[in-house]
């Protein structure tokens, strides 16, 4: 099992670079950030762009993997996103993972003047978005016509440092998304029950993840893949569970999900006076000692 963190893009870089370097010093496998235009309670607070932030982080670090949790079609187009990702993969010397999903109904969904898409339209769009992005990142030149997304002789030379392209970690819980994860994903991401993760009683939360992994395994079998090929990533912070309250609480929580088959845990970097206001000293102990206590 690996332990990673998600660092919100809320810091001016004079301070932000210290956070990303500290994440590397603490030994996290990866440091991700959210790819939003704004987000929930932080809407009226500082919030920077994910790709420039990750590019700066790539220059400030040497070993830690970097990525998004998650990018979506809400305000992205595969052609322009592919160019940015190839550049980021180059700057980071092949340390980038793309967390990607169908998107939701938050501020990103309407910030460009569009109506919020229905769940079906989000799934339809994602069903075009991901295959086109995959082709763009693998090919020198791509032409594809779709209902929602097209490319006409879109050039992506020299391509990704990572081959055949940088990894996709697909966030999905529904049947169509799980099929895409099985076909295109090197990893799969969940944060609990998408209908209301915080509403699920703590003792029932692991069963939700176990059921999702079962559905992922079925999708992989249908696609001719072994589910063990995929990293299984659990993003902490949306459920009623409180694993960052103490080192012991984390070890119990991590052990539960390790037994279920989760291979990477992602915990939120502490943000004072917010929903992520965890004790910094406890957080650092978890980062440096937590997984070692699992045995």
SSE diagram, text form:
Blueprint: E1 2-6, H1 13-25, E2 30-33, H2 50-60, E3 65-71, H3 78-91, E4 96-100, H4 119-138, E5 141-144, E6 151-155, E7 168-171, H5 175-184, E8 187-190, H6 205-222, E9 231-235, H7 247-260, E10 264-268, H8 280-289
Parallel strand pairs: 1-2, 1-10, 2-3, 3-4, 4-7, 7-8, 8-9, 9-10
Antiparallel strand pairs: 5-6
Can you offer a commentary on this structure?
The protein is an alpha/beta fold and 295 residues long. The chain is built from eight helices and ten strands. It has helices at residues 13-25, 50-60, 78-91, 119-138, 175-184, 205-222, 247-260, 280-289; strands at 2-6, 30-33, 65-71, 96-100, 141-144, 151-155, 168-171, 187-190, 231-235, 264-268. The strands form two sheets. An eight-stranded parallel beta barrel has the order 1-2-3-4-7-8-9-10, surrounded by five helices. It has a two-stranded antiparallel sheet with strand order 5-6. Strand 3, helix 3 (78-91) and strand 4 form a beta-alpha-beta unit. Helix 4 packs parallel to helix 5. The radius of gyration is 18 Å and the shape is globular.
List keywords for this structure.
295 residues; alpha/beta; 8-stranded parallel β-barrel; globular
Instruction: Name the helicity range.
Output: 25-40%
Oligomer: single chain
Strand content: 15-25%
List the strand order in the largest sheet: 1-2-3-4-7-8-9-10
Radius of gyration: 18 Å
The main sheet comes to: 8 strands, parallel, barrel
Tally of DSSP β-strands: 10
Mean pLDDT: 96
How many angstroms does the end-to-end distance come to? 11 Å
Per DSSP, the total helix count is 8
Low-confidence stretches: none
The chain-level structural class is: alpha/beta
Please write the string of helix (H) and strand (E) elements. Answer: EHEHEHEHEEEHEHEHEH
Q: Rough shape?
A: globular
């Amino acid at each position: 099992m690996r332990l990673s963190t998600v660092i919100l893009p809320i810091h001016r870089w004079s301070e932000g670079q210290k956070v990303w370097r500290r994440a590397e010093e603490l030994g996290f496998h990866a440091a991700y950030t959210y790819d939003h235009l704004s987000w929930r309670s932080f809407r009226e607070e500082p919030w920077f762009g994910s790709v420039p932030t990750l590019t700066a982080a790539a220059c400030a670090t040497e070993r830690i993997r970097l990525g998004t949790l998650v990018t979506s079609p809400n305000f992205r187009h595969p052609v322009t996103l592919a160019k940015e990702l190839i550049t980021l993969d180059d700057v980071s010397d092949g340390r980038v993972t793309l967390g990607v999903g169908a998107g939701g109904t938050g501020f990103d969904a309407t910030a460009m003047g569009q109506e919020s898409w229905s769940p079906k339209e989000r799934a339809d769009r994602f069903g075009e978005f991901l295959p086109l992005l995959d082709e763009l990142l693998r090919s020198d030149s791509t032409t594809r016509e779709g209902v929602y997304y097209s490319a006409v002789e879109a050039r992506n030379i020299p391509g990704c440092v990572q081959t055949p392209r940088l990894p996709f970690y697909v966030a999905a819980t529904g049947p169509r998304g799980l099929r895409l994860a099985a076909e295109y994903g090197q990893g799969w991401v969940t944060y609990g029950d998408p209908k209301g993760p915080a509403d699920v009683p703590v003792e029932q939360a692991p069963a939700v993840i176990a059921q999702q992994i079962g559905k992922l395994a079925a999708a992989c079998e249908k696609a001719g893949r072994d589910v063990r090929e995929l990293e299984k990533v659990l993003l902490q912070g949306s459920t009623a569970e409180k694993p960052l309250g103490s080192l012991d609480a984390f070890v119990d929580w991590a052990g539960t999900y390790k037994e279920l088959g989760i291979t990477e845990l992602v915990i939120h970097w502490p943000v004072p006076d917010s929903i992520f206001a965890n004790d910094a000293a406890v957080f650092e102990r978890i980062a440096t000692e937590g997984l070692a206590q699992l045995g």
